[in-house]
């Protein structure tokens, strides 16, 4: 039986899928009763991931993360760094600070709280 992935490994897989053609598969990483929070939205339950993706669609054409540091326990991981990418108006952005807090149980995301400076930096 394969080992259960660490919270950091699950978060890194989430980030990897968000940056490529697997973006629509991120829901596979979430528990059925998952909760996703952002400063302006909250998504819960089996459709949380797809609702989250729909919420992000009007914000930017693409975005990626530059990791600064990770803080990890047995059941949670915090990722801190900056976002960069292109917004839906075609304007490039970079250096947008973010903090993501993931709670992971049995290799699946139970909760993720996402904060970033997109509004502060004029991206949204």
TrEMBL record:
**Domain SnoaL-like residues, every copy:** 12-111
Q: Which Gene3D superfamilies does this entry report, sorted A to Z? A: 3.10.450.50
What is the top-level taxon of the source organism?
Answer: Archaea
In terms of InterPro entries, this protein maps to:
NTF2-like_dom_sf, SnoaL-like
Can you say what this protein is called? Nuclear transport factor 2 family protein
Organism of provenance: Salinirubellus salinus
């Amino acid at each position: 039986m394969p080992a259960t992935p660490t919270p950091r490994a699950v978060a890194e897989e989430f980030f990897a899928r968000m940056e490529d053609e697997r973006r629509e598969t991120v829901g596979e990483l979430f528990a059925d009763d998952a909760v996703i929070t952002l400063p302006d939205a909250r998504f819960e339950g089996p459709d949380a991931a797809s609702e989250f993706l729909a919420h992000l669609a009007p914000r930017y054409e693409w975005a990626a993360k530059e990791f600064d540091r990770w803080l990890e326990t047995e059941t949670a991981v915090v990722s801190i760094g900056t976002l960069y990418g292109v917004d839906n108006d075609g304007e490039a952005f970079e250096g947008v600070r973010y903090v993501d807090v993931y709670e992971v149980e049995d290799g699946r995301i139970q909760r993720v709280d996402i904060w970033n400076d997109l509004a502060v930096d004029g991206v949204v």
